[in-house]
């Protein structure tokens, strides 16, 4: 029985992750703590009402360290002596900016870096003691592999997330942790737009598969999802292979 903590679950990939995990039997997925910045998610509220024994909505602002620590304490109080098995850092932001990197707004770069890197570190650090008590000790950080539009701040921040994941993977390997980056692909979400390649259900299903099948030998890797028939989609976002660092 696996327990999950997932950030950014009010919509998009995060909400779909919760939905698909709840479709699995309780013997496989025992508890999901879905973190959102507020309770204004009709989709998540419906799932909470349908699965009150397995799904808990935790309200926290991932950019605020005190809020994240409070969320971790709440999860700990609900789990008792048990730990968290899997943490999925899904919360993130993507903003279109100038095609020229020198024209990227400093304020925008700080904001995007704060959400996509600093907040991920805060969440990972806050839940680390609970993960140390868990059975699987797995952390998955989501980022899209090289989006095509001018989103330079996003690209810079995700390079930082790549290094953050690599550092955690190296430092915590001896404790039995597995830290992995996953590119869910270009999905039809509010962030991805209706012009995206794949429906959110397709990409999320692959993210779930990877979280279930990953091995300790893949610690520190950056993995693409695998979508049959899309392996040659440039720049090979759906071949299921490891992305070179």
From TrEMBL:
Pfam family membership, one: adh_short
Source superkingdom: Eukaryota
UniProt xrefs under InterPro entries: Fungal_SecMetab_SDRs (IPR051468), NAD(P)-bd_dom_sf (IPR036291), SDR_fam (IPR002347)
Family note: Belongs to the short-chain dehydrogenases/reductases (SDR) family.
Protein name: Uncharacterized protein
């Amino acid at each position: 029985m696996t327990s999950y903590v997932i950030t950014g679950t009010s919509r998009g990939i995060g909400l779909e992750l919760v939905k698909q995990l709840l479709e699995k039997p309780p013997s496989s997925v025992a508890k999901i703590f879905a973190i959102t910045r507020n309770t204004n998610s009709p989709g998540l509220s419906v799932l909470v009402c349908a699965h009150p024994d397995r799904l808990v909505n935790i309200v926290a602002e991932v950019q605020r360290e005190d809020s994240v620590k409070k969320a971790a304490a709440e999860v700990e109080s609900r789990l008792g002596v048990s730990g968290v098995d899997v943490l999925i850092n899904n919360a993130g932001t993507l903003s279109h900016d100038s095609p020229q990197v020198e024209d990227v707004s400093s304020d925008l770069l700080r904001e995007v870096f704060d959400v996509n890197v600093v907040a991920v570190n805060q969440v990972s650090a806050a839940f680390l003691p609970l993960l140390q008590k868990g059975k699987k000790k797995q952390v998955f950080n989501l980022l899209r592999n090289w989006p095509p539009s001018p989103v330079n701040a996003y690209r810079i921040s995700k390079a930082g997330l790549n290094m953050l994941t690599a550092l955690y993977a190296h430092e915590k390997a001896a404790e039995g942790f597995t830290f992995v980056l996953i590119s869910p692909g270009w999905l039809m979400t509010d962030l991805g737009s209706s012009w995206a390649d794949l429906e959110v259900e397709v990409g999320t299903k692959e993210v779930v598969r990877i979280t279930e099948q990953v091995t300790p030998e893949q610690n520190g890797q950056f993995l693409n999802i695998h979508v049959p028939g899309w392996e040659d989609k440039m720049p090979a976002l759906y071949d299921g292979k490891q992305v070179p660092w």
